[in-house]
Design a protein that fits this description.
With about 120 residues, the protein is α+β, with helices and mostly antiparallel strands. About 30% of the residues lie in helices and about 35% in strands. It is built from two helices and five strands; from the N terminus they run αβββαββ. The protein has helices spanning about 1-15, 60-80; strands at about 30, 35-40, 45-55, 95-100, 105-115. Strands 1-2-3-5-4 form a five-stranded antiparallel beta sheet. A hairpin with a 4-residue loop joins β4 (about 95-100) and β5 (about 105-115). About 20% of the residues are buried.
């Protein structure tokens, strides 16, 4: 009986992976799947996104793509709200971390990138 309990506990823990958090400050809710945080810099800002959604069939690539899209669209929206323009977000500078909770079916992504003002 003890072995069965240990096996179940190990299975549950093994099925849970949490992405590395890249947030740089308090998170603000963007929509039901997305939160973001901003850290100001003189030449722009650092933006971090936490994105997660339920998936019956795990498709990490789809979540990663949606996460990167949320990061770049949020960067453009923040710039627009401030009346400024930004340089295109360099995809090579995006830090991305993925995780999946097999028990709940939630796939999560954490992404962060520096955003530079247009000169």
């Amino acid at each position: 009986m003890k072995n069965i309990v240990l096996l179940i506990a190990a299975s549950v823990l093994a099925g849970c992976a949490v992405p590395v958090t890249n947030n740089v400050g308090p998170m603000t809710q963007l929509d039901k799947d997305t939160h973001y945080s901003i850290a100001e810099r003189p030449d722009g800002f650092d933006l971090a996104i936490a994105y997660s959604r339920y998936q019956f069939v795990p498709e990490s690539a789809a979540v990663a793509t949606a996460c990167k899209a949320a990061l770049t669209s949020t960067a453009w929206e923040i710039a627009k709200q401030r009346g400024k323009e930004i340089q295109p977000v360099n995809e090579q500078r995006i830090k991305l971390s993925m995780g999946r909770n097999g028990f709940s079916g939630i796939t999560s992504c954490s992404a962060a990138a520096p955003v530079d003002w247009k000169q």
